[in-house]
UniProtKB/TrEMBL annotation:
InterPro entries according to UniProt: Oligopep_ABC_C (IPR013563), P-loop_NTPase (IPR027417)
Location of the Oligopeptide/dipeptide ABC transporter C-terminal domain: 1-53
Gene Ontology molecular functions: ATP binding
The UniProt record lists the keyword Transport: yes
One GO biological process term: peptide transport
NCBIfam families on file: oligo_HPY
Lineage, opening ranks: unclassified sequences, metagenomes, ecological metagenomes
Protein name: Oligopeptide/dipeptide ABC transporter C-terminal domain-containing protein
ATP-binding as UniProt keyword: yes
């Protein structure tokens, strides 16, 4: 994924393989689609949001033939992807065994 919110969603998906692990939960509520917030719709839930994310709608970038991402930090996607996987920036939710 190239959008930090999508990275969080991917991290939140449980695996049926291997040992049981804590699930990752994205803090907050999904954005209001009827009255979206100014700027990026995911700015309140994204741990990587910066000032511009709250002010301007992000530009749309073509990632692949049929894949797009709208993010002000698109050029930093590789670094953000590594950070999202390594740091405990997403809220951990303990799942009973």
């Amino acid at each position: 994924p190239c959008h930090p919110y999508t990275m969080g969603l991917k991290n939140a998906f449980p695996s049926i393989l291997g040992d049981k692990q804590d699930l990752i939960s994205i803090p907050g509520s999904p954005p209001n689609l009827v009255e979206p917030p100014p700027g990026c719709r995911f700015n309140l839930r994204c741990p990587f949001s910066i000032d511009i994310c709250f002010q301007k709608e992000p530009p749309l970038f073509q990632v692949d033939t049929d894949q797009y991402a709208a993010c002000h930090r698109f050029s930093e996607a590789d670094m953000l992807r590594r950070e999202a996987a390594l740091k405990e920036i997403w809220e951990k939710v303990n799942v009973a065994a």
